[in-house]
Amino acid sequence: MRRAMGWLGVLAAGILGLAPLAGAETGVTDDTILVGTSQSFSGPLVFPGTEEVAGMEAYLEYVNANGGIHGRKIKWKWYDDGYKPQNAVANMKRLVEQDKVFAVLINQGTSPVLAVVPYLEQKKVPLFFPFQGSSRLHGKKYVFTSYTYYDTQTQIVTRWLLEKKGFERIGIIYQDDAYGKFFLGTLKKELEAKGLTVAAAESVKRGATDVSPQVAKMAAAGLDACLLALVPGPGAQVLKEAAKIGWKKTKLISSGPLTDEKFLILSGGVGEGVWGLSLWPDPVNSPLPAMKEYRDILKKYRPGHEPNRYNLYGYFYTKLFCDGLEAAGRNLTRDGLIAAMESMGRRENGIINPASFGPDDHQAQDDGFMVEVQGGRFVPISGWLAVRNGKLVETPLQR
Amino acid sequence: MTWAWRVLLWAGGAAGLWWLKGTLGLFVVNLLLVYVVVAVGLNVLMGFTGQISAGHAGFLAVGAYVAALVGQHAPGLGVGWALLAAGTVSAVLGVVIGLPALRLAGFYIAMATLAFGVVVSEAILQLDAWTGGADGMYVLAPTWFGVSLETDEQKFWLVLAVAVLTVVTASNLARSKVGRALTALRESGVAAECVGISTPFYRTLAFVVSAFYTGMAGALFAYVVSYISPDAFSIELSIDFVAMVILGGMGSIGGSILGAALLTVLDQYLAAFQDFRALIFGLAVVVCMIALPNGLQGLFRAAGARLRG
Amino acid sequence: MFWQLVVSGLATGCIYALVALGLTLIYKATEHVNFAQGEMAMVGAFLGYTLYTDLHLPVSMAVAGAVVLSGVVGLVIQFVVIRPAADQPHFNVFIITMGLSIVLRSLAGLVWSHDEFPFPGLFPVRPVTFGPVVVTPLNLGTIAVAVGIMAGLFAFFRYTRHGVAMRAVCERPEAAQLMGVEVRRVFAAVWVLSAAVSGLAGALIAPVLNLSTHMGAVVIPAFAAAILGGWGSFPGAIAGGMALGVIENLAGGYLAGQIKNMVPFLVVLGVLVVRPQGFLGEKEIRKV
Questions:
Q1: What is the domain count for chain A?
Q2: Whether the predicted model's global pTM rises above the 0.90 cut
Q3: Which of A13, A215, B307, C24 is the most exposed place for a label (fewest CB within 10 A)?
Q4: Given an 8 Å threshold on Cβ–Cβ distance, is A93 in contact with B25?
């Protein structure tokens, strides 16, 4: 009897195994799933790009070493776009039309991502978790986005400053591109809604040589708080310049992408007391078990890479993608994966708040928490903050 | 050049494109043809006048944004008019840059054109009400007598037609009175003036023609990629264009085509090499330049000479 | 605020001036434009960083070592890449150095990664106040070292035998050869000197800009500075560099929006229209 059941099982497995062969989904074979991406392996964002890839590969190798997903190993194909939109499109077409990937996983940067989204939507190829914070990707059927949009980040910080800290004169130093503009634009809207105005705004060009003019002007503006929508290099320059001219009256506040350990290392210890919005636990020191697991897997599979927020991103969102594959079951299709993602529900991940998706909600994270630099580390000074139904809400952090 | 030889060349080019379509895809073929138009256009300036331009990505950007804006605000307008508009606006800017450049020599022109490229990028960022700033803008498909050219295949025929037109007109230009005047100016400005060739007129003309071609290429670029942003038109791209012309062989139209083709294919092919892409690309440029002082056209000429005995 | 901006502008301007000086050295001797000058500065700074962090040398020694090692890098580049192409047209060599800049940048990325690193300053950063102006010894030191190097180069070209030989080669290579100057050796020496000066510039700017493989972009403002001052003129390179640094800062301080990023380039364009040979350049006279 048990034997017969066993044979039945084998037969069933055989049929199930054959089933995908009949109507096989692109990029999926009996024992492999092919994913691909176009990333910055050169160009201005080469460091974030290569680190994200390290986190992605570390997790994928870990999954493959543990038997893959529903018996399938994940194979991958990465191309370099050097942060140029035209090359991103070329790579994407190659991935879809020639390599025939199942899905696209974590590409990067406003221009290269925006350039390829209409094409992927048209070809119905799902794009998972591009590294960018523009809300222009909201509401696309085949796109799942990752972290809190830049405009939401600004809302969280501004409301927290106005409502919890009673600040009024708020200014901003922003990077002269899409990323910085999002923060500037939303800050303006938020303050105007409260009958206030942006007290001072200064831009910094990407790769600028000197930020002393911007800092001098901001210091003279008599602000309560100054948002820094920058990347770590210029952000650290601002801190050093502020320390140099003795600009202490104003609270400096880093945006989500700037709240990065590199920002503190580069500023050489003058960052004490700075506030920031953080989207992640401290990648190097966090005692959360899931964070320890991340560091172990990174160390095992990509030993040359120190833990940082970029490879944490690559690791975390690849894991989320694999959770989706797991939920989609053995009979894997693109639409099935999307449906599975949308109905996965709130699942604890031990790192950030549970991501949950729905047909109208393809965003993994919509919150963050405030931190203060104490002893060269970002220490939380608030719970998880989010703007829901137009109100700032706070929930406790997981420990 | 004999007819047979010429037919062989065109056939070789067609075969090359066919091979490329199979290996890297039709999109890359389209991009390559756009860069061919730029390289041939830049060669009009560099090859005929000996002036270097480090700002042609600026002209490309101008053409691209003009075409995108025309598509947005005058959707029914045919692709021919859009190309003409892109080329014309770019050519007008060519006059603006070409006139002051008259007084400049050698690398001063490189600086002036480089500055032009930077100013164009900044202007695109600044005029974000029209251009979308750093966010970039999507480009609507061009229309040809009411037919919207949506697919890569349709765009291929458009780009191919313009590329062939560019090559044919540029080679006719080279053989015309204008071409001879320009060559005379490159060899010796003073001597040319003595025989009645007006330096300011012809040097400005070279700038204008070059800017016109590149502006048209910009429109094609916008159609092919369907999305444009300032990130697409970096200083780096301007320098790549110069490299295409010089690697191909200054002054040779065939060389410019080969230079654009080689660098584009190499760059796209190497995308799969990830971290090593830039390294291999850079090494290839250095080695090719050292090995081929006369550029690719020199290599071909030598090969042709050997074939004919 | 005005003087504050001027002083920090001068500090940045000095870096432009040093890299521009490196460009000018090579141009005067060989008529080549070295697009990889910025990457040479970057590699020099990374070498200094390695000496500092891995060999635990004091900062001053590490910077001195960086200068020497940069010279070696310059020699290797001259030998391997430039010499085989020495007889080619200048545009060809320009493209070769363009390829070289890509190679150096990606090699540096493979060796040191594309991350950003804090670079120790040769001088402390604790600020000093002079009336309304706050400066760091780092600012002042940068200016002092740069000015010292420039003075040293002038003395070298004016009073030493090698310097005079180099100038001779710059002016009239054939005549110099006839007079018994080893032209090829002088070309090599020029690359060594130019690379060393750039390496120093890299080590001076790294504490401000942070050390990364993107630092090579400094070649663009340096080129603009050299053109602004007058292409091929040593005093021009220095004046152009200082002027550009100050213009950038004043534009940043007094102009709104993105106009300020265009201003330095508009100024360069404007100067070229009014005075095609730059501030201190000589008018070229060509024979028929």
A1: 2
A2: yes
A3: B307
A4: yes
